[in-house]
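Hi everyone, sorry if this is the wrong subforum. Our group has a chain we'd like a structural model of before ordering constructs, and none of us has done structure prediction before. Sequence below.
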Amino acid sequence: MNRSKVMVLIAAHILVLSGTVFAATTIRNSKHDLSFSSTGATIKAAASGTSEICVFCHTPHSAAAVVDAPLWNKDIFSGTQPAYTVYSSDVLNQLSYPAAEQPVQGGKAVHIRKTRLCLSCHDGTIALGALKNLPAGISGDIPMTGATTMPTTAAGYIGIDLRDDHPVSIPYVATDPELQVPHASSVKTHSDGTGTNYVECTSCHEPHNPQYGNFLIASNAGSALCTACHNKAGFTGSIHDTATLAYSPPDGTGAGFIGTSVGGVKCMTCHFPHKAGVTAAAPTTPNPGSGRYLLSFREEASCFNNPNDRWGTSGAAGACHGRGATGTNAQRRNIESVVHETSGKQYKHRVADPGKSGRHEATEGRETTGAAKLNWTNSGALWHVECQDCHNSHTARGGVRALGTNVVSASSPLYGAGGARVSTPPTWTPLS
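Answer:
Right subforum, don't worry. Here is the predicted structure as tokens:
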């Protein structure tokens, strides 16, 4: 039996042992098939390289001596490790989440971060053909075509700055009121050997099976993978849960891939799990420091669905609350043309002021007093107004605000805002 057949059988055996049973050939001709005969990958082995598929991650002999890595064929845990910049936010801090750990060998219970295995290709620091045990007849790295390492412009490039990506190498915190630990049939958890479950890349991705797109472990239609973990209080029945406005996320997936309307798409209407905070100038490249809360674009630009709106430059106007709003209630939804700094209107709530970028905190409106936190320190240096100061996108309803009263009903677009007086408060747990 030749070596390539042995590799396929070993990969199939690994999948069965892990409880994930897929046909061993599902990886063939996918983007993870880096053999020179692959029809699904633009970055792959050169003609002088190899026809083997599994060898780029696994080897039957002389595997890297690392814990919890199945016959791993990359010697990525010796020498200088990359220093990753991990995701953090005021929300995680107030919920007492520990800081995300560096996805390197070691950590609690000295287990290998599943994330580090994925990043050995996707962070762009290691040559794709650099293997511990090379195929017969090849010395040095496997020669590649398209790129030697993952290029920064590739859809799968993550880099070492993870601030615009979903947190990984971080444990679940049971006291988080909006977190539900998922079942094995949906999102996976990974134990560190002491009973603590971690979120890793493989919580959402299955590297051997591309059937759901982007190597997801299940369909993300209706943001089902998001809601498998995140149970946002008050979201059910909110306008962003029910809106029928036609919409498809501008993330490179085909129209209707996870839904065809705002209410059908749900979470992914406003959030991206990777490369969040994009701009029109760099719509597919990482944007570290701009991916706060994993918003699709920067702050109110996510509401306008237009990556250019922070600076007021030209660009495709979005169909949500931007000047490109169309369909039912389009005039009422077109907020951008009213508050934009180029509108000529002298509104004090200038949410598009580029000088106020990055000041808003998601926890401002969730204090135990029920009133929004105001940043009065430093002579007003932290003052700002953003859409989120008056609207809670997870609880707001689609009704019209009643004039003549400061009491907000459960059918109001102001429902759930921290500084609004609410007649019937939404059912969420305030932060201390």
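For your construct planning: Confidence is low (pLDDT under 50) at residues 1-25, 367-379. Residues 90 and 361 are 7 Å apart (CA to CA).
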